[in-house]
Amino acid sequence: MTFRSKVKLGFSWVTDSLALFKQHPAKWMGLSSLYLVFFQFLPILLLGIIEQINQAHGSIIILFLVGLLGLALTFSWPIFTSVVIGVCRETHAERTTSVTEIFHRVKPHAQQLIFLGVVFFVYRLIMIALTEADIQSMDIQQMDKEVMPIGFWWLMLKLLILQVPLLLATWYSPLLISYHQYSVFKSIGHSVWAALHNITALVTAWVALTLAVVGVMLVLGLVIGVIAIFAKGIAAFLGMMLIMFVSLMATAFLFSIQYFSFLSMYYKKGEDFVS
């Protein structure tokens, strides 16, 4: 494929995602809500609860249960991702398959998917260990200045470098386990290779989605700004709703872009998923 055709392919994933979203918007918003609540907000909340229990010298049993719940959520995201991509496939194929049935298809691979979650959790711990010294060495007072210290930009660069392999490794690996029966480490290696092979189209899709999100927020933000002139309270509420709405939309589109890129990479036209 030429560079131009790869760029067109990336744009097509975004437009196809929009068409898929239009079929059942409530379903996609619901799945996005579940993902953000259980795999983004709740783990952060549980970390806060653990810190409070530690400071208050609370019950060890409660601390253990809260920590166990946090780990369970951290390790189980590959299962959720596989189910959502399965929902994408069934919707795209215009089949009325329930989420429960899709989960039962993924369930035989649950042990491998959880182990995948453990592997990526360990990688995140390594990321924390590698950046902890940089975070501790930063001067909070300098952070308040208009010009950020060099240490801040060095930390951002280090996080970016460490985050890229994680993104490449997680993009296809849960799906390769669920729908191609790959082993955990084979799925990670193949995911990195496939993501790099598709990198032009993927970057195009990600950039297009980012620009679309920014555009929507700017337009709606201007509308809310006009409303704020007359009713600040309502404008503040609408601002919060805007952030939630855009977050849900972006999450739904990321899942569908992941699906279409997986379909393009691993399946011939008309070929179906096999779990």
What's the short story on this structure?
It comes from Candidatus Methylopumilus turicensis. This protein is mainly alpha-helical and 275 residues long.
Task: Give your account of this protein's structure.
It is a single chain. This protein is an all-alpha fold and 275 residues long. The protein has one domain. Helices cover 86% and strands 0% of the residues. The chain contains 10 helices and no strands. The longest helix has 35 residues, at 232-266.
Question: Which keywords apply here?
Answer:
single chain, 275 residues, mainly alpha, Transmembrane protein, transmembrane, membrane, transmembrane helix
Write the layout of secondary structure elements.
Blueprint: H1 3-23, H2 25-55, H3 60-92, H4 99-106, H5 110-137, H6 140-143, H7 150-180, H8 184-197, H9 199-230, H10 232-266
Helix pairs in contact: 1-9, 1-10, 2-3, 2-10, 3-4, 3-5, 3-7, 3-10, 5-7, 7-8, 9-10
| Broad structural category | mainly alpha
Helix residue percentage: over 70%
The main pleated sheet reads as: none
Question: Care to count the β-strands?
Answer: 0
Report the order of strands and helices.
HHHHHHHHHH
Residue-averaged pLDDT: 88
Distance between the termini: 29 Å
Count of discrete alpha- or pi-helical segments spanning 4 or more residues: 10
Please state the CA-atom Rg, rounded to the nearest Å.
21 Å
Low-confidence stretches: none
Q: Rough shape?
A: globular
How many domains? The number is: 1
Strand proportion, as a percent range, falls in under 5%
Keywords: Membrane, Transmembrane, Transmembrane helix
Protein name: Transmembrane protein
Transmembrane segments: 28-48, 60-80, 113-131, 152-172, 205-230, 237-260
